[in-house]
Automatic annotation (TrEMBL):
Residues 7-127 form the SnoaL-like domain. It comes from the Bacteria. This is Nuclear transport factor 2 family protein. InterPro entries: NTF2-like_dom_sf, SnoaL-like. It holds the Pfam family SnoaL_3.
Amino acid sequence: MTQTQQVLDAADALVRAFGRHDTDAYFASFAPQATFLFHTLPQRLDSRDAYRAVWQGWEREADFRVIRCESSDRQVQWVGEAALFTHTVNTVVAIDGVEQALRERETIVFQRDADQRWLAVHEHLSPLPQE
């Protein structure tokens, strides 16, 4: 299996876990030192634990749930040993019991860890401009 396919498999696992609101599997897809830039937050999150705390706040305060997530327009670009995965994300979430459809684009940077697993070390999410 090529390294590109390994990265695509890691991205698929991350998206599947997110899409079924499996927080343990989802957060296990990220390295502890991963950073996050989301258009919905005013600040950068500087660790997986910081993101998980924000996520738990969404769950607690707004009954946040991911209903489903689909990835398309996928590409892997190599920069040295790092893989830049970009895609379009169509997600349905529930906030306070009301479903919302989101169309965004995302970049996830993957690197191998000491156990040779491809883990996300950075995620950047932005809204997809209207066509």
